[in-house]
Amino acid sequence: MTAKKPTFTRKLVHAGGWQVAKRVAKMVPFGGTVVVVGLVGHDIKKKGVVRGGINSGIDAIPVVGLAKNAIELFTGDFIADRDGQNGKDK
Description:
By secondary structure, the protein is mainly α. The protein has a domain at 29-79. It is 69% helix and 0% strand. The protein is built from five helices and no strands. Helix 1 (8-27) crosses helix 2 (31-38) and helix 3 (40-47) runs antiparallel to helix 4 (49-60). It is globular.
């Protein structure tokens, strides 16, 4: 049996799908707060303590977080990652 290799488009959709899923989950008014609390550590690791805390705090506010994440779907992050980190481990 030959294994079916995923196409480039399929790989791209799969990789970007997690990012979109996190943003959409954060946009649910009060359920999004629970998701944000679970992702605080990830934000702090990516952005640093101050920026990550501010980003998570804004995301946790139901209506404000909804608006912020809806805009970020199209424009990218308002609060930048740490210099040289790009969210990846060393």
